[in-house]
Amino acid sequence: MSRTLALITAKGGSGKSTIAILLADALASEGRKVLLIDADPQGSVSQWFKTAAARRDRPTNIDVARATSETELSALLGQVSGHDDRIIDVPGVADKSLIVAANAADLIIIPARVGAFDAAQAIRTAAALAAVARSQGRIMAPYRLVMNGVNIVDLRGVALREVQRLMIESKIPVLSAYFAERGIFKTFVSGFGSLAKTQASVRSVSEARRNVREVMEELGLLQSASGADS
Ligand SMILES: Nc1ncnc2c1ncn2[C@@H]1O[C@H](COP(=O)(O)OP(=O)(O)OP(=O)(O)O)[C@@H](O)[C@H]1O
Ligand SMILES: [Mg+2]
């Protein structure tokens, strides 16, 4: 089944591009053909892909397409691409491309850092997308909020619990799985090959991979129970 996932939030730096790349890599490693759509003028996803290619370390099964305006994004999404999954990365500002991406998505993923302002912005993004969908007589695609960059301080203190409470109160579907803050995620998105295919002898790699799979499992993105990390 072909799917379109969109990473959306109007808050900059929340991890959209990082998560888009991590999901693309994990899905591609399962043999799915993935189209990563870079709709952010910053071009982070394109930069990752180019750097990996220059290092001759480009993951297989992933194509990247760039859309520099919402018109280009609409046109791109209207084409049949022959990919199993399309993953859209948008800019971290309120921009029309967020609405175009949300309209095309089967699942909207809203990343947020642990913090009251970030959580509030994530909630506002979900509400704004729902309002636009209503005004256009459409039903908004299902969405899930995922906490990103969670560190030991967030886990020890009240911040994570407080944010999750705020989400639940606002009836925001927040995942219990989250992306931890990991140096390996940062390294990987700088253009180093495939996290999913790297030899898992290093603990930080296998933990990072397990982390990605936990989130994917809760999002219902895993095809099979196989591929348990080594
Ligand atoms: N889980 C994580 N662990 C460690 N570093 C992370 C993690 N998630 C994101 N980062 C780092 O945080 C920074 C911002 O992440 P990213 O560029 O993915 O966010 P973004 O939402 O796409 O930002 P923008 O809105 O500017 O497009 C990057 O330097 C990235 O490497
Ligand atoms: Mg980005």
Summary?
The protein has 230 residues and is α/β, with parallel strands linked by helices. The protein has helices spanning 16-29, 44-54, 70-78, 96-104, 116-135, 152-156, 159-169, 183-189, 203-219, and strands at residues 3-7, 34-38, 62-66, 85-89, 107-113, 143-150, 179-180. 45% of the residues lie in helices and 16% in strands.
Question: How is this fold's topology laid out?
Answer:
Elements: E1 3-7, H1 16-29, E2 34-38, H2 44-54, E3 62-66, H3 70-78, E4 85-89, H4 96-104, E5 107-113, H5 116-135, E6 143-150, H6 152-156, H7 159-169, E7 179-180, H8 183-189, H9 203-219
Parallel strand pairs: 1-4, 1-5, 2-3, 2-4, 5-6, 6-7
Helix pairs in contact: 3-4
The structure holds adenosine-5'-triphosphate and magnesium ion.
CATH C-level: Alpha Beta
CATH topology annotation? Rossmann fold
What is the percentage of strand-forming residues?
Answer: 15-25%
The small molecules bound here are: adenosine-5'-triphosphate, magnesium ion
- Helix count, DSSP H or I runs of 4 or more residues: 9
Order of helices and strands: EHEHEHEHEHEHHEHH
Structural category is alpha/beta
Taken together, the total number of domains comes to 1
Largest sheet: 7 strands, parallel
- From the alpha carbons, calculate the radius of gyration and give it in angstroms: 17 Å
Strand order, sheet with most strands: 3-2-4-1-5-6-7
CATH superfamily: P-loop containing nucleotide triphosphate hydrolases
